[in-house]
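Reply to dn_fold:

You asked what the input looked like. This is it:
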Amino acid sequence: MFPKVIKLILAAATIAYAIYQFIESYIGNGIFLLLIAGMFILLYFKNEIIFLAFLRLRKQDFEGTQHWLNRISNPQANLVTKQQGYYHYLHGVIESQTNLTKAEKSFRKALSFGLSMSADEAMAKLSLAGILMQKRRKREATTLLNEAKKADKHNMLGQQIKMMQQQMKKI
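and this is what came back:
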């Protein structure tokens, strides 16, 4: 993983060399170098290690996800704000298997940093509501469930939200 400053420097240098290639009439080389520069810019906004951690999580490999997340040495310095949100979101998902208190803190940090997609935000709020419901904090859980319902624009979590609301009535 390259620090984010290095990614921007590599992108700027690649763009400069692409312009030089255009001036020298090597159009194909210039286009290819612009594509490479675009890749560096993409990796600035989408961290490759977080992407690999998501792939591990998708396979339900929590140890592999933790391994990839541990490779990020200093998330505050090496990650953009939204990436920090996803970093804490992944930690919350992993910790929700064992320690609910740590998972609650991670989900709250993820929501404070922000998540790019509304579905991810809805999932984080739903998970946090589930944790709060298990801790018998019904008022906060209800608020988070309503926020999750608003954030779930494509109704992907509709079944889970309804199920959790029914469980809330039993408390």
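The CA atoms of residues 11 and 41 lie 6 Å apart.
Hope that clears it up.
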